Amino acid sequence: FAASGVLAVLLVIIFLDQIKSDQAETEREKLEAPSFWSTFLATFRHLKDKRQCLLIPLTMYSGFEQGFLSGDYTKVYVTCALGIQYVGYVMICFAAVNSLCSLLFGKISQFTGRKLLFALATVTNTACIIALLLWKPHPKQLAVFFVFPALWGLSDAVWQTQTNGLYGILFEKHKEAAFANYRLWESLGFVIAFGYSTKLQAYIKLYILLSVLVLSMVTYGAVEYLEAKSSLGHLLPQGEWSTSPHSQETRM
């Protein structure tokens, strides 16, 4: 694990293209660089943005669903029915599908749009949750134990790539504060999922997961609505007549 971390740093240093900027601008940015505390407080000030607040359930769901698969599915389903020796293979299946789908969805999102991919992940995750509620694991159903993490990896690839992309598009001018919030709320989802992991029964955790997913899609839909409304306002011609009293008074 440590070697992988070192390799990652070396790959970034050696192969990542350097961002070129004007020297004078670079010096000005250095002088205007915000302090640690101003950056820290900006993370919480960013919550004044309605869109950020609406994205909290979706961001937390990312932590919930990853926490369930790694902490609960492996324990309640895999270990109890097949044995602990299969946990590694199941997680390999999840990670492999996740990696391939992340690469695929990152490419096709420019053609399909993020809404279709979010819908795909929602339907897939919902189907998995309902199936897990109804399924009675048996050692003879070996393939089924790998189908669930594969589908979960497909969904997680959408949550990871598209949620990150959504944050980058919505909060282009405040990326540091936005992505700090992203990690904050996703990590909180992890904490909660692992926190109640040993306290609740599996079916209750699945109902919680389904509830958070439904809430996430409702609030995400609200964000898309606000963005569509805002974009429509920007696209209106400047000379278009307005019916508001203020606009009539201005023209007079």
Topology:
Elements: H1 2-15, H2 23-31, H3 36-45, H4 50-81, H5 87-112, H6 114-134, H7 142-170, H8 175-195, H9 202-235, H10 245-251
Helix pairs in contact: 3-8, 4-7, 4-8, 4-9, 5-6, 5-7, 6-7, 6-9
Characterize this entry briefly.
The protein has 252 residues and is mainly α.
Structure report:
InterPro entries: Ion_channel_UNC-93, MFS_trans_sf, UNC-93_regulatory. It comes from Oxylabes madagascariensis. The protein has a single domain (46-226), classed as Up-down Bundle (Growth Hormone, Chain: A), CATH 1.20.1250.20. The protein is globular. It starts with a helix and ends with a helix. It contains ten helices and no strands. Helix 3 crosses helix 8 and helix 4 (50-81) runs antiparallel to helix 7 (142-170). With 252 residues, it is mostly helical. The chain has helices at residues 2-15, 23-31, 36-45, 50-81, 87-112, 114-134, 142-170, 175-195, 202-235, 245-251.
Number of helices: 10
Please, how many domains? 1
Number of strands: 0
What does the largest sheet look like?
A: none
CATH topology grouping: Growth Hormone, Chain: A
Question: What do we call the CATH homologous superfamily?
Answer: MFS general substrate transporter like domains
Low-confidence stretches: 239-252
Termini separation: 70 Å
Give helix % range. Answer: over 70%
Q: Name the CATH class.
A: Mainly Alpha
Strand content: under 5%
CATH architecture: Up-down Bundle
- What integer value in Å does the Rg equal? 22 Å
Main attributes?
MFS_trans_sf; 252 residues; 0% strand; mainly alpha; transmembrane helix; Growth Hormone, Chain: A; 10 helices
